[in-house]
Specification:
alpha+beta; ABC transporter transmembrane region fold; about 350 residues; 2 domains; about 60% helix; Rossmann fold; 13 helices; 4-stranded antiparallel β-sheet
Length: about 350
């Protein structure tokens, strides 16, 4: 749970990563490989066939063929103000996700405050908009180059063929024309392929984002093995000091509490005083992070329990519970898939 405390890891940022970044990485690893192979093999095959008909023309074609791929490579590696754009998008997505998830609270703020929030969202998109305009102009230049270079390439090939024919009348005009035509078809195919290639720079940035999430180690291993069964349920919080990973202020300082089995305890306090934090520590969403404090159940340190079995034996209803777009029964089954109708009805009552 601590992973989500950072502003860079808000639900909206994670959603954007799942939708856009993974799609960009997929395009680089699948579509791009095919496009590169198609473009390169097209040029190589056309130059090889041209060698059969006229080796002099083929040498010239081979030397100038790299100019065909420069336009496509320029478009794929184009990156303008990428870090600032990514940061602005993250903040905008985080703000938008907060607006959607807390829409009831947002609507109660009044029209002026809602307009202020929307203005803030528009302000966050200014940098991506400006970068997008610059990128569009530069991409237009590269695209124009990739389109015109094909015809310049072919015109140059015909010009060289004419010079060769003039210098050596014994050369077959049909062979020279065939060589030029083969190169023409290969050049057009390669140029079209390269112009449709996804952005390599964007895919690399997306891959960095995706793998930074995948390879980020979890402080609490959800698959940790350990003691499975809670026998009585005596809970002890002893000398707990705790602060959230993204904050400097301690939420709990030398917090002590003992809850006996089969008893009810109410924890009362103002917002931010640590009421929900106590539940988070009990479920091991977080661990107390310093000064030797510990949480114990039945005298056993909570870190000695299996995380999955611990959470299966504790039920929690948050301050603002969220339901999936399913029936009440189905929502309850998410917590215990093997539950029968009798136990579901008992819990619901």
């Amino acid at each position: 749970m601590g992973w989500f405390d950072s502003k860079d890891r808000a639900p909206g940022v994670l959603t954007n990563l799942l939708i856009e970044d993974i799609a960009a990485v997929n395009g680089l690893t699948t579509e791009s490989i095919g496009i590169i192979c198609e473009a390169v093999l097209g040029l190589i095959a056309s130059c090889a066939i041209c060698f059969v008909f006229s080796w002099q023309l083929a040498i010239v074609v081979t030397l100038i063929s790299p100019f065909m791929v420069l336009g496509g490579l320029g478009m794929t590696k184009l990156s303008i103000n990428a870090d600032a754009v990514e940061s602005a998008y993250k903040e905008a997505n985080a703000l938008l996700s907060d607006l959607v998830m807390n829409y009831r609270t947002v609507m109660t703020l009044g029209d002026k405050n809602v307009e202020l929030i929307l203005w803030r969202y528009q302000e966050l998109l200014v940098i991506p908009h400006q970068s997008g305009v610059k990128r569009a102009h530069i991409q237009g230049l590269f695209f124009a180059y990739s389109q015109c270079i094909r015809f310049i390439f072919i015109a140059f090939c015909f010009y060289v063929a004419a010079l060769l024919l003039e210098a050596n009348p014994k050369l077959s005009s049909d062979d020279l024309y065939t060589g030029c035509y083969v190169v023409f078809v290969g050049a057009i195919g390669s140029g079209v392929s390269m112009s449709q290639m996804p952005s390599i720079s964007k895919a690399k940035k997306s891959a960095k984002n995706v793998f930074s999430v995948i390879e980020d180690p979890s402080e609490i291993d959800p698959h940790q093995k350990g003691h499975n069964l809670i026998t009585h349920g005596r809970i002890q919080f002893r000398d707990i000091y705790f602060r959230y990973p993204s904050r400097r202020r301690f939420v709990l300082r030398k917090f002590n509490l003992t809850i006996e089995p089969n008893t009810s305890v109410a924890i009362v306090g103002h917002s931010g005083s640590g009421k929900s934090t106590v539940a988070g520590l009990l479920l091991r969403f977080y661990d107390c992070n310093m000064r030797g404090g510990r949480v114990a159940i039945d005298g056993r340190d909570i870190r000695d329990y299996s995380v999955s079995h611990l959470r299966k034996q504790i039920a929690i209803v948050q301050q603002e519970p969220l339901l999936f777009n399913e029936s009440i029964k189905q929502n309850l089954l998410f917590g215990e898939p093997a539950a029968n109708d009798t136990s579901i009805r008992s819990v619901a009552q």
